[in-house]
Design brief:
single chain; binds zinc ion
């Protein structure tokens, strides 16, 4: 992955809508739901893409291929389901509570997002946070 320097302040669309949208997902989880619908109009808003394009110098965060309008918003910690490696089963749910989290969003090319990264998020130790009640702070991702 490339090193990315960006503003710590999220684009307005995230600042305005991410808290309520995340709250809704957390309430659904607490009510027993394990698969979620995510609103791409929030996390993949043109404003979000524009800020990431600038921060990433129009490059895919993984392979550095030039990305334009075809760029995908990539969730560093996968939002829908997660796998340790290609042999591991998919988890019941992913890092749904980070779906709209600015620090979790990157810009990638379609190939890297869909074909390669997908829902992989390998950790060096087996202490994965499985809900918003747990912290990702102690996770040791193999991606940096
Ligand atoms: Zn790529």
């Amino acid at each position: 992955m490339i090193r990315i320097h960006r503003e710590s302040i999220p684009p307005p669309v995230l600042a305005e809508q991410s808290i309520a949208a995340t709250q809704k997902l957390c309430e659904q989880y607490d009510a027993g739901k394990r698969t979620f619908n995510f609103d791409a109009k929030i996390y993949a808003a043109p404003q979000v893409k524009a800020v990431l394009k600038l921060a990433q110098h129009l490059k895919c965060c993984f392979c550095e291929r030039t990305v334009g309008e075809d760029g995908h918003i990539e969730h560093f910690r996968p939002k829908g389901a997660v796998r340790q490696d290609l042999e591991s089963p998919r988890s019941e749910s992913g890092y749904y509570w980070l779906a709209y989290e600015w620090a979790n969003l990157l810009l990638s090319c379609a190939d890297c997002n869909v074909r390669h990264k997908a829902n992989l998020f390998p950790l060096a130790s087996p202490n994965r946070a499985v809900s918003h009640h747990e912290s990702v702070e102690t996770e040791m991702p193999l991606f940096h």
